[in-house]
Amino acid sequence: MTKTHAMFWSGETLRERLAPLIDPFAPERVDCAAYTLAVGPEVYVSPSDQTADPTTVTVRRLAPGDAFTIPPGQFAFLLTEEIVAVPADALAFISIRAKTKFRGLVNVSGFHVDPGYRGQLTFAVFNAGPVPIHLKRGQPIFLIWYASLDRETVVKKDGAVRMGIDPNLITGVAGELQSFASLATRIKVTDKALGDRIHAVEKEQTYYRVIGAVALAHMIALTVNWLKDGFATRPAPQVTFAPELAAP
To answer: What CA–CA distance (Å, rounded) separates 195 from 205?
Structure first.
């Protein structure tokens, strides 16, 4: 059946239609014209310069209520707790709640879910703030909106329900991520080390200048004493007077 126009689903429509589309579904999670999704059982946070071996960092499994942090300048994959489905006559849009975004967490993944999709959603996020962001499993931080298409589409996603964070995503971003914060710290450490080295060289040069001045003064003193001794031991010059001629 062809629809006359497309529209976003209202809060009332979400309560009517989402029960078979979101598992688990909680009517109280309807927020105006959006539904709130929670942090799920898996998370990946990119290693920082404080990580002992960045190559060993992988997906972490979270028990209910487990907490984790995303350091400043670090990247993460977050999984939703819920399994989401989008019917063939609709399209979904996703984002992060404003109060979480205001702390610096930015969604850098896709912003829509295709018709026919079924599975958990993976959010790629980046901490653009100055401090670590603390999250935990079950925390409601994502939003999803549904919008009706003008008709049911045959061009849609098919296949099995997608569960968990795709390992191929991790492979593409594995290894240490040089954040602005870590680079700034390294610059400060290098600057301090360079300053300490310059200070040490200046002290060393001052030491050698003092030694050189003392040695030069000693040589001058020895030279003056040698000259004095030389003049003191040199015989006095003999003066000979010619006899005066007798007067006639």
So the answer is: 15
Residue 137 CA to residue 143 CA, distance in Å, equals: 16
Burial class (CB in 10 A: 0-12, 13-18, 19+), 99: exposed
How many of the other CB atoms lie within 10 Å of CB of 38? Answer: 17
Ordered DSSP codes for 155-221:
S---SSPB-S--HHHHHHH-S----HHHHHHHHHHHHHHHHHHHHHHHHHHHHHHHHHHHHHHHHHH
pLDDT tens across the length of the chain (248 residues): 445 566 999 999 999 999 999 999 999 999 999 999 999 999 999 887 665 455 667 899 999 999 999 999 899 999 999 999 999 999 999 999 999 999 999 999 889 999 999 999 999 999 999 999 999 999 999 999 999 999 999 999 988 899 999 988 887 666 555 555 555 565 676 777 777 778 778 777 888 888 888 888 878 887 877 777 666 666 656 656 555 555 55
Phi, psi dihedrals of residue 149, rounded to the nearest 5° = -85, 165
Residue 146: name the closest of 20, 1, 44 by CA. 20
In this structure, the dihedral spanned by the alpha carbons of residues 162, 168, 169 and 172, taken in order and rounded to 10 degrees, is -170
β-pair partners for 45: 76
Q: In whole angstroms, what is the distance from residue 114 CA to residue 226 CA?
A: 101
Question: Which two tokens mark 132?
Answer: 């670590």
